[in-house]
Specification:
single chain, 498 residues, alpha/beta, Rossmann fold, 47% helix
């Protein structure tokens, strides 16, 4: 069934493009309307006026720009009466689910000891509620503490533990001796990751390694780990994305080294039940300024229910010796951030102004042009990159895609992870940690390229070359690396793809 073509989670809708467009001043815009006798401005005119009234990048706004933004926001609400439908569609995503067979889950989990890290958070709590239906002999939650008021469940043993504490976690797992481990605990805020680099790296990378190794040592048969749709990007300088990508590499390395334990990963996109964006929109609507990165930003979303059911599917499909990465195939149309914000104002009756603030650190403004291939986008999950889509397998009945993590593990020097750990242990200065993470990220990118067939490399190069003059330094380096792995001239690329 044809679907909306994939759109980057952080990319304005459509293909990467230049956005330097001449804007009229607010006075000129009003004069233009008066000359044309137009009483109602278009949405694009309102947006241009908002950008002119308060240029992006400001932390604080003076009273004058705030009043103008408030007036223009009311015009925007009037110009977008259907935005409430996007708000309602976003809310309705909570009802989506994956039709996994209960009998298969009872056969797998019945009589087992099942441990969930992060069991007091949104996904962990939802997962424990779901696991309780399938006859597990014991359910155990391990977390640092309670999170945000998510419900605790009868019959679950709630233990305190920290995934960053390798020795403590190993001892706890040895005592519990889980048969199956679901690893959900994570630092999940990309913006916070740029400010709390030590926390993000120690939790999302080393915490993942600690869980996988502790589970293997305790004799667990399966380990299913939650990762992020942002990990589809083969390289990123952003801390959260780089950490999640590195965590997948850690899992792939562990799966190859420990064939006695079956390891799988699931990529989540924006979970509406635990939405950072939605929480902030409602907070700002109550009192404040609604800050949006870009009026064209779109993102995919899924429910907590289908997220935990995807983890169960991944557990059923895990195989020894390789890391399989699972995603939802059809995530529906991506959510328009501007419509979601306007719909929130309509739903709440708020008079908070919208400010188009520009992209904060931790959120990519333009995706690598070779990230999606038009030949496969729309057929496979948008959480699989062009590098992964051609090898993806699909379960049409469940609506799930998976691919085996394709990395040449020999391409990552053994000391890269040790260097990152040493940087974390050296002290509070975040810059050595950021630098060591970046070195690891480039090595993981090289490992991905080394494992790709020539045809996939050729497609990535040809998709990227039309944008070569406008590439960022990182994207230009990525293209150079792709060409180096190809080892052929540009004319040869066309022959290889054709």
């Amino acid at each position: 069934m044809p679907r909306q073509k994939a759109v980057s989670l952080a990319l304005p809708a459509g293909a990467p493009r230049a956005t330097c467009r001449r804007r009229r001043s607010n006075a000129a815009w009003q004069a233009h309307r008066a000359e044309k006798g137009e009483d109602v401005p278009t949405v694009s005119e309102i947006i241009l006026a908002m950008q002119d009234a308060a240029p992006k990048g400001r932390q604080l706004l003076a009273d004058g720009p705030l009043r103008e933004l408030q007036r223009l926001t009311q015009e925007l609400i009037a110009a977008k009466p259907d935005a409430i439908e996007e708000r309602e569609r976003f809310d309705s995503i909570r009802k989506r689910s994956v039709p996994v067979a209960d009998a298969d889950l009872r056969s797998w989990l019945g009589g087992k000891t099942v441990l969930v890290t992060g069991g007091t958070g949104c996904i962990g709590s939802t997962l424990l509620a779901e696991l309780g239906r399938f006859g597990a002999a014991r359910l155990v939650s391990v977390s640092r503490g309670l999170t945000g008021g998510w419900p605790l469940h009868a019959g679950v043993d709630y233990l305190r533990g920290d995934v960053t504490d390798a020795a403590g976690l190993t001892a706890l797992f040895a005592e519990v001796r889980p048969d199956v481990v679901f690893h959900v605990a994570a630092q999940r805020d990309p913006g916070l990751a740029e400010r709390e680099i030590h926390l993000t790296v120690s939790t999302n990378i080393f915490g993942t390694r600690n869980v996988a190794e502790a589970a293997a040592q305790a004799g667990a048969a399966e380990v299913i780990c939650a990762t992020s749709g942002k990990a589809l990007r083969p390289y990123s300088r952003e801390v959260y994305t780089a950490a999640k990508r590195a965590a997948e590499w850690v899992l792939a390395r562990t799966a190859a080294a420990r064939p006695d334990v079956r390891i799988a990963a699931v990529r989540f996109t924006h979970v509406v039940d635990n939405s950072i964006v939605d929480d902030r929109l409602h907070q700002w609507a109550r009192s404040g300024v609604i800050r949006l990165h870009d009026p064209n930003t779109m993102f995919y979303a899924q429910s907590a229910c289908e997220s935990v059911q995807l983890m169960l599917v991944a557990g059923l499909g895990a195989r020894s010796g390789e890391l399989r990465i699972y995603t939802i195939n059809d995530l529906g149309m991506p959510v328009g951030l501007l419509d979601l914000a306007v719909g929130t104002l309509q739903q709440t009756g708020s008079v908070s102004p919208i400010y188009l603030s520009g992209h904060d650190p931790g959120y990519e403004s333009v995706a690598f042009p070779g990230l999606y291939d038009p030949a496969t986008a729309g057929d496979v999950s948008p959480l699989l990159s062009a590098f992964e889509a051609r090898s993806a397998e699909q379960d049409y009945q469940l609506g799930v895609d998976w691919c085996a993590s394709s990395l040449d593990l020999s391409q990552v020097p053994d000391d890269r992870l040790d260097a990152l750990g040493a940087a974390c242990a050296a002290g509070p200065d975040p810059e050595p940690v950021r630098a060591a993470l970046d070195e690891l990220s480039w090595s993981v990118f090289e490992a991905a390229l080394a494992a790709l067939p020539r045809r996939a490399l050729s497609r990535a190069a040809l998709l990227t070359e039309p944008y070569e003059a406008k590439l960022s330094c990182d994207h230009a380096r990525m293209l150079t690396a792709i060409r180096r792995h190809l080892g052929s001239s540009q004319s040869d690329l066309a022959v290889a793809v054709g």
